[in-house]
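Worked example 2:
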Amino acid sequence: MIRALVITLLLASGSAIADDWADELSATTRVEPSYPYLAAAMGMTAVCRASYGIDDVGRAFDVCVACNTGLERPTPPRAQALASQQFVQAVEVAISQWTYSVDLAGYIGVRTEIRFLLADQSPDLLPDPPGMDECRGPQIT
């Protein structure tokens, strides 16, 4: 049986972990990322950060995502790497569907933090957020 899941999107208010990193911009349309099935089955948590711009029609572009993952139990490295990449892809797919007001067109450097945590897990299992110093496209840390 698959456990229930919780995905938290953090903006500038509401969480000490994101207060110094995420922006207060609100998308007019927001699609929540899907919790990767393999990661959920392994009890994997993640903290992902994304940086992107908003184009002239209010869509995200140049999306760069980095994720740090945490595990409840030992897992083979290959399975862990695959599940980690699935977090990155889930965030990229979700953000590519977000829309913003055209008043924000041309805004560069929008920052968002997303946490993946199963409903029965303690927030203590969340890893530290990834660094985004030299984001060059999709990556996992």
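Helices lie at 37-42, 77-96. Residues 9-19 have pLDDT under 50 and may be disordered.
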